[in-house]
């Protein structure tokens, strides 16, 4: 039996004697409320999935940005060391001659 404001809170205990039986009207109302709560949870779940996908996409784009910046930094560092090596090789060639 669903109870309270928390749609996930369920109580499976009931206080019916063997002689007592739930009327069809009560059963119908219970099922309608259960379906309404299910629909609410379904909508919330869909909303949370969209939010999660949005957050994942943001994280992916920020990761891509970080990778691109790191790549640019490494390219500049590579060019710097390449030019230093050229200077060293030129100096080495001059010493050989």
Summarize the structure.
By secondary structure, the protein is an all-alpha fold. Helices cover 75% and strands 0% of the residues.
Features:
97 residues; 1 helix
Q: What topology does this entry show?
A:
Blueprint: H1 24-96
Coarse morphology: rod-shaped
Number of helices: 1
Mean of residue pLDDT values = 78
Radius of gyration: 34 Å
Quaternary assembly: single chain
Bin the strand percentage. under 5%
As residue ranges, the low-confidence spans are none
Q: What is the tally of beta strands? A: 0
Q: State the secondary-structure class.
A: mainly alpha
Q: Separation of termini?
A: 95 Å
Q: Sketch the major β-sheet.
A: none
Helix content: over 70%
Order of helices and strands: H
Question: How would you describe what is shown here?
Answer:
The protein is mostly helical and 97 residues long. It contains one helix and no strands. It is rod-shaped and about 110 Å long. The N and C termini lie far apart (95 Å). The mean pLDDT is 78.
């Amino acid at each position: 039996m669903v109870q309270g404001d928390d749609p996930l809170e369920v109580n499976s205990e009931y206080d019916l004697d063997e002689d007592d039986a739930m009327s069809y009207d009560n059963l119908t109302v219970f099922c309608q409320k259960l379906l309404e709560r299910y629909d609410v949870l379904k909508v919330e779940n869909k909303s949370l999935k969209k939010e999660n996908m949005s957050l994942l996409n943001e994280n992916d784009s920020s990761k891509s940005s970080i990778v691109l910046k790191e790549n640019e930094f490494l390219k500049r560092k590579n060019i710097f060391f390449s030019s230093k090596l050229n200077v060293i090789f030129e100096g080495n060639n001059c010493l050989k001659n």
